[in-house]
């Protein structure tokens, strides 16, 4: 598990479709695709298409060990809201509206492994709380 060094992550190749993924929803701003190692019958990742999740394409801040959600500024409210709304669309498409979870693991202590902002949408079984 490597924190962000400014290098591209595997999700860049998923966005560019160099690496195939099972896409659930896509628009001009976000991509939602099935997690390769699902932790529930439905496990979809929702990511912003921009390079590191929040900074604008071409204006990257090469800051090491940056947790994507900690890069959020007021000007990012639109994309953050768009990601959350996309998670609703995913839940509806996947038929899990009776109960699901939206999670952002942030930093090593929270088991973040890919340093491109992503929302996990989990459902299709009884989920435990607290997650541990
Ligand atoms: P994190 O632990 O950073 O919150 O979650 C990263 C997620 O990305 C993990 O659940 C992991 O299974 C998923 N993942 C990592 N590499 C790939 C990949 O190449 N394709 C897909 N579809 N998911 C991936």
Structure, explained:
The chain has helices at 10-15, 77-94; strands at residues 23-26, 30-34, 42-48, 100-103, 119-123. With 132 residues, the chain is of the alpha+beta class. The protein has one domain (10-123): 2-Layer Sandwich (HIT family, subunit A), CATH 3.30.428. It has a 5-stranded antiparallel sheet with strand order 1-2-3-5-4, covered by helices on one side. A hairpin with a 3-residue loop joins strand 1 (23-26) and strand 2. The protein starts with 9 loop residues before the first helix and ends in a 9-residue tail after the last strand. Guanosine-5'-monophosphate is lined by residues 10, 19, 21, 33-37, 45, 105, 111-114. A motif (Histidine triad motif) lies at residues 116-120. The active site is at 118 (tele-amp-histidine intermediate). It comes from Ambrosia artemisiifolia. This is HIT domain-containing protein.
CATH superfamily: HIT-like
Count of DSSP strands: 5
The name of the CATH architecture is 2-Layer Sandwich
Question: What is the count of structural domains?
Answer: 1
Class by alpha and beta content: alpha+beta
* CATH fold-type name: HIT family, subunit A
Uncertain runs are 1-5, 57-64
Strand order of the largest sheet: 1-2-3-5-4
Molecules bound to protein: guanosine-5'-monophosphate
Question: What share of residues are in beta strands?
Answer: 15-25%
How far apart the termini lie comes to 19 Å
GO molecular function, one term: adenylylsulfatase activity
Organism: Ambrosia artemisiifolia (Common ragweed)
Protein name: HIT domain-containing protein
